[in-house]
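Whiteboard transcription, Tuesday session. T.W. wrote the C-alpha cells on the left side:
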C-alpha cells in the first residue's frame, strides 16, 4: 500500500544499508583524494573548505525540509485518528435518533467497524482490513437508507450526516497513512546529496592527508540515524514512532454492551 522509497524493506535494514553506503562513499572519496594528492606531489593542494561548507549547507536544508514534511504528515495522521474516533462516536450516539430496528443493527455494525479500524493499525493484514471496513460501510449505509426511508425526518437526517462523515474519514485516513508518503524523488535526492557530501568530505581528507576515520564514521552514523528517523515518521505503523490508536480503543470500550 505504501509506494514510498524502500517500502519493501524494514527500517532497520535501510538503516544498516545506509550506514554501509555512507561509509563506502566516504572511503571512496578518501582514496580518490589520496590518489590526487600523490599526483600533485609538492604542489599546493586546493582548499575545499568553501565547497564542503556549501554542500553541507545544502544537505542541512534538504534534511530540514524532508524532516518537516515527515513530521507534518505524522501529526496529520495522529489528528485523523482522533477525528475518526469522534466521527464514529457521533454516529453511535445518533443511533438514538433512528427507529429501534435499525438502531440495534447500526450499533452492531459500528462496533464491528471500530474493531476493524483498530485491526488495520495493529496488524500486518491491512489490505484485508480495509476491504472489511468498506464492506461494513456498505452494510451501515444500507441500514441508514432503511432508517431514512422508514422515518424521513430531520432527526434521522442528522444520523445520515454522521454516517457520511464516518465513510469520508475512512478515505482520509487511508490516503494519509498508506497512500501519501514522502515522494520517492525527494528521498532519492536527499540520499544522492548525502552520498555526494560524504564523498567530498572523504576526498578533502585525502587531499589534506588527514587519515582520521572517526569523524567520518560519526558523520555517517548521525546522517544514517536522521534518515532512519525520517523514514520512521513516514511509516505510521512501523518502527519506534507509531501513531497511537488510543482514541479508537477508548471508543471501542465505550461501545461494549453493559452486562
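and on the right, the sequence the group agreed on:
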Amino acid at each position: 500500500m505504501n509506494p514510498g522509497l524502500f517500502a519493501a524493506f524494514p527500517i532497520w535494514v535501510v538503516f544498516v544499508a545506509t550506514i554501509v553506503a555512507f561509509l563506502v562513499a566516504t572511503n571512496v572519496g578518501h582514496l580518490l583524494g589520496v590518489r590526487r594528492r600523490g599526483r600533485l606531489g609538492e604542489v599546493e593542494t586546493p582548499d575545499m573548505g568553501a565547497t564542503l561548507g556549501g554542500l553541507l549547507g545544502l544537505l542541512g536544508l534538504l534534511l530540514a525540509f524532508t524532516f518537516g514534511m515527515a513530521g507534518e504528515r505524522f501529526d496529520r495522521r495522529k489528528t485523523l485518528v482522533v477525528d475518526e474516533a469522534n466521527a464514529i462516536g457521533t454516529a453511535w450516539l445518533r443511533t438514538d435518533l433512528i427507529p429501534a430496528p435499525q438502531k440495534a443493527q447500526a450499533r452492531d455494525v459500528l462496533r464491528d467497524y471500530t474493531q476493524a479500524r483498530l485491526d488495520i493499525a495493529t496488524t500486518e493484514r491491512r489490505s484485508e482490513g480495509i476491504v472489511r471496513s468498506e464492506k461494513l460501510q456498505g452494510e451501515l449505509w444500507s441500514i441508514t437508507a432503511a432508517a431514512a426511508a422508514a422515518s424521513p425526518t430531520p432527526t434521522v437526517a442528522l444520523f445520515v450526516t454522521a454516517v457520511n462523515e464516518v465513510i469520508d474519514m475512512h478515505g482520509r485516513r487511508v490516503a494519509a497513512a498508506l497512500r501519501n508518503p514522502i515522494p520517492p524523488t525527494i528521498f532519492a535526492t536527499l540520499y544522492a546529496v548525502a552520498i555526494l557530501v560524504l564523498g567530498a568530505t572523504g576526498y578533502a581528507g585525502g587531499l589534506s592527508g588527514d587519515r582520521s576515520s572517526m569523524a567520518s564514521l560519526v558523520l555517517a552514523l548521525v546522517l544514517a540515524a536522521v534518515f532512519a528517523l525520517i523514514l520512521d515518521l513516514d511509516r505510521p505503523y512501523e518502527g519506534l514512532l507509531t501513531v497511537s490508536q488510543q482514541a479508537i480503543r477508548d471508543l471501542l470500550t465505550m461501545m461494549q454492551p453493559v452486562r
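Someone added at the bottom: The chain has eight helices and no strands.
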